[in-house]
């Protein structure tokens, strides 16, 4: 009982608040940036509070470019998984040869059929094809859910819904999200449990990590789509419609459909045990259709020597029931659909059951769902690639729809027998790194809301420059030598608007300063120490701090090299590196406070750790621009 409840719990964790969180973050962030501050409806606009006008340069191009690639990968993963599920259903209906094992050709054919319909839908636009198919797909899904709920043991499903809701609220809000399966991921020889009861080492990566990466891979697509259809709505209504309502529906769906699958699997195990205990044959009730399925007796079963029936059927008509086949997980859905057979009914007692009808309806609904995913994805990718423009030539939409179909085809064909693994890898590779940007978006949302509160929410199309602090660094850490990326991307023709905002080609000072600070950072550090020591009373302390930084700088370089001999040196190297980071953070925070530049310790850490040459050059340029700090102090 506990195992089955936890199966539902982990499933709902993957499809509940944790899954919908990336969507709502991007929806709110993009919506605020576009509708409140008149920025383009693109992902780059979310980061204006951090990068300012730099988002119109290579940084913004990189963010939107990654978003496009990630969205295509996410949609293609779903399209590929859907094709595998649809093909299984077609084999069950015998529309595709059930004995056929090489199915790549079938996969490719279905992908392009879905792509063709998605192309037609996306060309017709948001309010016609996309909206109609979305409503149709959701309605058909609800119809299947309701039919199965009524034909099953409804009272049991209602109990399970209540129980699962409480279980979800207890575990999935704080405890399960922090569970990383640390002990279970240990390999033999690394301290793995000796009782053999640990989880498989691959499980957390193949399930939870994959699901979270898959959700994030869809985040730009769904988030931007939600933002586009949520204009003039409050944040409260978006939270309810995108966060609470979908999670509630997921709890209902998985409690009912998952509960049906679990109940039937438990009944199959029960019949297997009855066969062993009373007929000395575990396969006594086994169905001819599969070794995992068992025919449910339609009447109570009695055996000699036992007064009470050994089996009482309270759900006549539901047969066969199947255990879960780990080698063919897509078949589980259709096993449930075919269980509603109601044998012995009908005018001549030969009613064929609802299996074919429900399976055909499921396949059609799946196709609709994946058509709407492809057409909506094409629309959003087209918007991203057009810098937020909502009106574009229909050929662009066709291009992106066909691109998604082509990538999905490539993944399935290249993956071969491990097509599923190839699809999962695509989402993980592109989705997981984007989590860092989503974390930054949380802070950007806070800045936007504070700006609205400060300057009045009634004002429409507020100036986005209100995000920026009154005083900033003359050279941001992502400027200077990093501007060479803008030179390369623009082929040396940097936009004049960007130049006016400070994004110019790097100068000799930037190159020389970066090289000097990368090799000899302690030289610039001492000059900064001297500049912020207004009264010159801390010369000894400044010299000691500079010498310590110099020693640690040389030390971590040498120890990283020694790490090729003994990995223990690497730990010492990281210790020295981050000690230097702390020293530089202290100096940068002091300078910020003296010259009135706002910031936070997170930004200081990022600048002073891996970008330390830029941070030192930034302080050096700022001090040159400020002049004598002691004059201002006096």
Task: Walk me through what this model shows.
This protein is mainly alpha-helical and 634 residues long. It is 66% helix and 1% strand. It contains 24 helices and 2 strands. It has a two-stranded antiparallel ribbon. Helix 2 (17-36) runs antiparallel to helix 10 (235-279). The radius of gyration is 31 Å and the shape is elongated. The mean pLDDT is 90.
Would you kindly provide a brief summary of this structure?
This protein has 24 helices and 2 strands. The protein is mostly helical.
State the share of residues found in helices, binned by percent.
Answer: 55-70%
The shape, in one word, is elongated
Mean pLDDT: 90
> Spatial order of the strands in the main sheet?
1-2
How large is the radius of gyration? Answer: 31 Å
Query: Count of helices?
Result: 24
- Through-space gap between termini: 75 Å
Poorly predicted runs are none
Largest sheet report? 2 strands, antiparallel
% residues in beta strands: under 5%
Order of helices and strands: HHHHHHHHHHEEHHHHHHHHHHHHHH
By secondary-structure content and strand pairing, the structural class works out as: mainly alpha
Number of separate strands: 2
């Amino acid at each position: 009982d506990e195992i089955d409840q936890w199966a539902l719990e982990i499933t709902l964790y993957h499809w509940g608040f944790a899954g919908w969180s990336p969507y709502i973050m991007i929806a709110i962030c993009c919506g605020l940036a576009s509708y409140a501050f008149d920025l383009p409806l693109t992902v780059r606009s979310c980061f204006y509070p951090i990068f300012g006008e730099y988002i119109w340069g290579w940084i913004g191009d990189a963010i939107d470019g990654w978003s496009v690639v990630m969205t295509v990968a996410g949609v293609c993963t779903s399209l590929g998984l859907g094709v595998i599920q649809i093909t299984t259903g077609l084999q069950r209906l015998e529309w595709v040869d059930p004995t056929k094992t090489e199915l790549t050709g079938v996969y490719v054919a279905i992908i392009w059929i879905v792509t063709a319909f998605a192309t037609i839908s996306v060309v017709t636009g948001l309010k016609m094809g996309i909206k109609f198919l979305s409503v149709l797909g959701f309605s058909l899904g609800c119809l299947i859910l309701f039919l199965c709920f009524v034909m099953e043991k409804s009272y049991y499903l209602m109990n399970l819904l209540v129980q699962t809701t409480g279980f979800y609220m207890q575990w999935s809000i704080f405890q399960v999200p922090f569970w990383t399966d640390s002990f279970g991921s240990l390999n033999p020889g690394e301290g793995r449990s000796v009782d053999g009861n640990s989880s498989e080492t691959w499980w957390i990566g193949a399930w939870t990590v994959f699901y979270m990466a898959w959700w994030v891979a869809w985040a730009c697509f769904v988030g931007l789509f939600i933002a586009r259809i949520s204009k003039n709505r409050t944040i409260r209504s978006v939270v309810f419609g995108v966060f609470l309502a979908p999670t509630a529906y997921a709890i209902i769906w998985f409690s009912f459909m998952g509960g049906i699958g679990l109940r039937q699997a438990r009944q199959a195990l029960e019949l297997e045990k009855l066969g062993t205990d009373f007929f000395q044959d575990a396969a006594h009730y086994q169905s001819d259709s599969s070794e995992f399925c068992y025919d449910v007796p339609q009447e109570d079963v009695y055996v000699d020597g036992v007064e009470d029936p050994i089996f009482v059927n309270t759900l006549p008509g539901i047969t066969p029931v199947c255990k879960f086949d780990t080698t063919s997980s897509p078949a589980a859905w259709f096993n449930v659909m075919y269980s509603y057979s109601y044998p012995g009914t009908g005018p001549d007692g030969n009613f064929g059951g609802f299996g074919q009808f429900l399976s055909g309806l499921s396949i059609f609904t799946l196709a609709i769902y994946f058509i709407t995913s492809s057409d909506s994805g094409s629309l959003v990718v087209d918007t991203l690639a057009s810098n937020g423009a909502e009106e574009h030539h229909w050929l662009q939409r066709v291009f992106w729809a066909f691109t998604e179909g082509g990538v999905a085809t490539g993944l399935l064909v290249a993956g071969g027998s491990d097509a599923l693994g190839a699809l999962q890898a695509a989402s993980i590779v592109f989705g997981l790194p984007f989590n860092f940007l989503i974390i930054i978006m949380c802070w950007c949302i806070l800045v936007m809301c504070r700006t609205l509160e400060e300057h009045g929410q009634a004002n429409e199309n507020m100036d986005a420059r209100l995000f920026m602090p009154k005083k900033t660094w003359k050279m941001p850490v992502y400027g200077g030598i990093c501007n060479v990326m803008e030179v390369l991307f623009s082929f040396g023709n940097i936009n004049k608007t960007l130049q006016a905002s400070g994004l110019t080609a790097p100068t000799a000072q930037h190159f020389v300063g970066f090289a000097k600070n990368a090799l000899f950072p302690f030289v610039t550090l001492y000059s900064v120490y001297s500049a912020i020591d207004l009264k010159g009373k801390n010369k000894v302390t400044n010299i000691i701090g500079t010498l310590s930084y110099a020693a640690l700088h040389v030390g971590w370089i040498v120890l990283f090299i020694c790490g090729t001999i003994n990995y223990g040196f690497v730990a010492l190297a990281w210790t020295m590196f981050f000690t230097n980071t702390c020293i530089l953070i202290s100096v940068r925070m002091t300078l910020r406070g003296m010259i009135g530049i706002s910031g936070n310790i997170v930004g200081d850490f990022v600048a002073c750790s891996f970008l330390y040459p830029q941070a030192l050059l930034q302080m050096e340029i700022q001090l040159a621009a400020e002049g004598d700090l002691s004059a201002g102090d006096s």
